[in-house]
Amino acid sequence: MQSPSEPPDSATTTAAPPPPTTTPPLPHNSSSDDFFSSASFPSSSSSDGDNLISPSPPAQIPISWPGTLTLDWILNLISVFEWASRNLPPSELPSVLPVKVFDSLVLTASKVLHKEPNCVRIDECGDGTSVVVVGDVHGQLHDVLFLFREAGFPDENRVYVFNGDYVDRGAWGLETFLLLLAWKVFLPHRVYLLRGNHESKYCTSVYGFEKEVMAKYGGNGKHVYRKCLGCFEGLPLASIIAGSVYTAHGGLFRGTPVTPSKRAKKKTRKIIINPESNSLYLGSLEELSKARRSVLDPPWEGANLIPGDVLWSDPSMTPGLSPNNERGIGLLWGPDCTEEFLKKFGFKLIIRSHEGPDAREKRPGLGGMDEGYTIDHVVESGKLITLFSAPDYPQFQATEERYKNKGAYIVLEPPYFDTPVFHSFEAVSPRPKASPYYDFEFVIDSDEELDLASMVTS
Ligand SMILES: [Mn+2]
C-alpha cells in the first residue's frame, strides 16, 4: 500500500524532463495543504454546482512541472482548470499552464502509453479494489470532475478504465485530456486510457479539438496539437478487466486473414481485404494484439482494419457481421457475434461506448441513451453494454430541444468484476459560458456519414 503522495512506481521517475526555465512559478502564499483544506473538493456532495465556482484564483499559478507528479499537483491542476474555465478567456490558458509544462506532461504520458499493449490486461485487482469504467466524455470537463468526485479519485483501491472520446464537441477537450494524462502518469497501473475514434486527426479537425487548441495556445497551437496527436497514437485500443470484461470504444472487430506472400521475403505478409459481408468473421485477441495502432487516420485497410473496427463499430439487433454503412467505417455486429466473442474468450461482459443520445435516436431497435447506458445484447454467456458518460450532450446543439441525457459510469466489484453497477448522473449546472470550436449547426449530429474521400486525401 503506497501513500498517494508518493510516486507510484518507476514510470514517473524515468522520464522526468528538467523543470521549465523561463516560467518560474509565482511565489504562492501557502502550502498546498492549506489551500486544499479550504477548497471545494473532494466533497462528494458538491453536485449543485454552486461550490464549484472559485471566485479567487488558485494558489499555485502558473503551474510548474514537478518532475514527479503528486496527488497535490493533480488537485491543483483540477483547481486551476476549473477556475480558468470560469474566469479566464480560453486564450489565457497558457498563462496558467505554460507550454513547457504541457510538453513535460504529454511527453511523460506518451512514453507510458506507447509501452502499453493494444489490449491492456487489468489483472492486479485485489479483494479491496473496484474498477470504474467510463464512456465518452467529449471535453465536458466539469462533468468529468463531478464523476471523479462522486465515484472517488483513482487510488490504490480504485482503478479507472476510460473508453475513449476525451476530446471534440465540448469546449474543454484539452483540459480534460491533460487531466486524464496526469492521472495516467501519477498512477499508471490504476488509470487506463483507451483510444476513441475522436482521438484522431480527422475527427479533431472536424469536431472542434484542433480549433480549440489553436484558440487556447495561439502561436504554440500547432505544436500543442501535434503533440496531442502523437499522444493519441500511444493510446491502447481495448482492455480486459479481471479476465472477464472486455472494453473498447466501438467494440468487436473482424479477423484479417493472412496468407504468406509468394515472394517469401522475411516476414512479408499479404492481407486480403474483402469487403463482402459474407467473408467477414470475428477477429481474435491474438489478432488484436498484433494490430498496428499507431496510424491514427483512415483509410482503414490492411493493418488498420482492426483498429478501425475497434474504434468505430456498433452493435445491431440483426445477427451476423456486416459493414457499418451508416458510418462508412467499422462493422455492425449482432447478438450472435456477442455470444461467440464472450464464449470463445470466457468473458461475461462487453462494455463499449461510442453512441450518444443523438446517435441512438437514429438506431431503431436499440435503446435510447437517456440514462447514460443501455444493455444491448443479453445472450447465454453474458451481456453487451453501451456506456456514455457525457450528460446533457452535445454541449452545443443546434435545436432548442435538448436530449437532456444523463451520463453514466459503471463500477465493477470484486471478486468477479462481472456484475455491472450503473451510476447515472446529471450534468453540472450551470456550465461555464463558452464558444463552440466547430460549426455545430452544420456539422452532422453524430459521427455518421463520414466523408471518406476527404479522409483519404487529408
Ligand atoms: Mn465515438
Please summarize what this structure is.
With 458 residues, the chain is an alpha/beta fold. It is built from 15 helices and 16 strands. It has a domain at 118-253 and 281-458: Metallo-dependent phosphatases (Purple Acid Phosphatase, chain A, domain 2, 4-Layer Sandwich).
* CA radius of gyration: 21 Å
The CATH architecture designation of the domain at 118-253 and 281-458 is 4-Layer Sandwich
Poorly predicted residue ranges = 1-52
Q: Which range does the strand content fall in?
A: 5-15%
Strand line-up across the major sheet: 1-5-6-12-14-13
Number of strands: 16
Helix content: 25-40%
Average pLDDT score: 85
Keywords: Hydrolase, Manganese, Metal-binding
Biased composition (Pro residues): 16-27
InterPro entries: Calcineurin-like_PHP, Metallo-depent_PP-like, MPP_PP7, PPP_phosphatase, Ser/Thr-sp_prot-phosphatase
EC number: 3.1.3.16
Helices and strands, with pairings:
Elements: H1 11-14, H2 32-37, H3 71-87, H4 93-96, H5 99-114, E1 119-122, E2 130-134, H6 141-151, E3 158-162, H7 173-186, E4 191-193, H8 201-206, H9 209-217, H10 221-234, E5 238-241, E6 245-248, E7 258-260, E8 269-271, H11 285-290, H12 305-312, E9 314-315, E10 321-323, E11 331-333, H13 335-345, E12 349-352, H14 357-361, E13 373-379, E14 382-387, E15 407-412, E16 421-425, H15 452-457
Parallel strand pairs: 1-5, 2-3, 3-4, 6-12, 9-11, 12-14
Antiparallel strand pairs: 2-15, 5-6, 7-8, 10-11, 13-14, 15-16
Helix pairs in contact: 3-7, 5-7, 5-10, 9-10
Manganese (II) ion binds at residues 136, 165, 196-198, 249, 354, 447.
